[in-house]
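Final paragraph of the annual report: two paired records, presented back to back.
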Amino acid sequence: MPVSRSITIVTHPQYLAHDTGGGEHPETPSRLTSLLAKLHSSPLKDQLSFIEPRMAERRWLTTFHDEHYLFRLEECALSGKTHLDHQDNQLCFESYEAALLSAGAGLTGIDLLEAKENLVFCAVRPPGHHAESNLALGFCFLNNCAVAARYWQQQYGHRKILIIDFDAHHGNGIQSAFEEDPDVFYLSLHEHPTFSFPGSGYAEETGTGPGRGATLNIPLPPGADDQMVLNALIKRVEPALVTFAPERIIVAAGFDGHRDDDMSGLAYSTELYGKFGEYLAAWADQFCQGKLLSILEGGYHLKSLADSAATYLTALSNHSTKE
């Protein structure tokens, strides 16, 4: 009979010490406290286990980030400066360790997946998908998904990695990491760059050189709703995924496309994130022996973030599996 699957949550209290200065900055510790409180009080709680990550080692960070950028990030935080590269990227003394632990969560999660687990969700901050090799951007300092993909390839020998990003904003940093790489397929559904930060992710951006065709951007107009996304999943995402046939899947799980979140003009419902979970669990079963790594990106309206993440994880857990 169908059974619910367990999910390991990788998170760390140090994430709450990453201080973005209060005030109007949307990337706050309450994002995580709200999400985790929801999980602890939800019917899903008995399926969850919690583990703390290790800090990402330098050799894995430099699979994407420039060495001089890593020194600059460390110096900026530890010298008491309040932002890096742009006022959006607020940080404090504790932010450097938090960023290392955020990048390390994906590595810890991959170790768990390769050992025994099938579903891992990294509840982290700061987020990562906007971070470039040598530039902090959009609240992001280290590119958690990009580092995780290289780790999965080099540590465990899984060559073909799919990164699917359903954050409302295009993951420019992930795209730049792999746009010349045919073995990492980056697939992003996001608000059209004409209307949305960071201004990248046009449909015409499909990769370059040997990586041409291994990037699929699906920009959506403001007001895009559940049906528009479901149509894209069926008609665009699934065929591309089947053609690529990934060995492992990483999800850049952003929840800021929700209609209550004013960080985008998208109009997703909470229930849509359950549909994302259903599709991703099925694809992971079909191609990856059920192995699926999800890493938190955006989501800034506290209630919709918590509700949407819980709905997503519940769908992953409840995906039909026979024992």
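The closing record of the year follows.
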Amino acid sequence: MDPFAPYQWLADALTYRVFGLAPGSRLALAVDFFLYDVPKVLTLLAVVIFAVAIIRSFFPPERTRAMLSHTRLYGGNIAAALLGIVTPFCSCSAVPLFIGFVESGVPLGVTFSFLVASPMINEVAVILLAGLFGWRIAAIYIVSGLLIAIVSGIIIGKLGLESWVEEYVYKLRVGQAAEIAEQTWRERLVYARDHVGEIVGKVWPYVVVGIGLGAVMHGYIPDDFLARYAGVGNPFAVPIAVIVGVPLYSNAAGVIPLVSVLTEKGVSMGTSLAFMMAVVGLSLPEAIILRKVLKPKLIAVYFGVNAVGIMAIGYLFNAILR
């Protein structure tokens, strides 16, 4: 039984009975899509964020830095990428985390594996992808995100680009992190509840805007429009999707409704995943924030390596998911 069936019933009732829109019309399709997806996505967000907040309470930033400071070589990149899944930090946390990693002696490549995985393999994206496309696609998203994070971190580490970090970062001396107090389960539950309110309060406008754009695309864009320019027959569809995705600023909750519509309109799954990864993992606001600690050349390398990895994943999964 579909747990969201009541949402569909309510959306249909509002669209066709209350608003009196003609069934099958473009406006009705767009409104029905919007009224169904908004409460569905917000409900999923609340449930997932609550669960992840419980997990996150065991991995505060201080403990994360302590764990990564003892990792080396490829094992460090793998551990950092895996840790990024369960410790998802927003882009505004990139600067203090980066400074903490460098000061703690975490290798630069390991640090970048974490920074790539943390926003890209977003717990919200995984759950929403599973809900929309099934767990097979969600698993592909996790594996491909991990590959990009690990490989890009290894490449950046091998290039020896420590001199492209702003010098003041290495001169910073932060005090030893305070002892991490063990929380009771009551405290963890209260933290998770408050975290849901904080995060949902911040991201709901992106959810509404993202779903609104998806609704417009769903109702008004002709079925063959996107398939014509970014469909399976276009060899440049993946790089076009990545280039278009970079300047956009959205979280996973806002972009996944667009991905759903893109696939409905004939865009292949690999191209759609590449678009989503570019939006989530290569945002311009993140580059602006990282400029405080990274020189422009290193930011360019960071974006370039990730973009190439995302395009490779897009082409790979376009081939396997035909």
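Residues 52 and 304 are 30 Å apart (CA to CA). This concludes the annual technical report; the extension proposal builds directly on these records.
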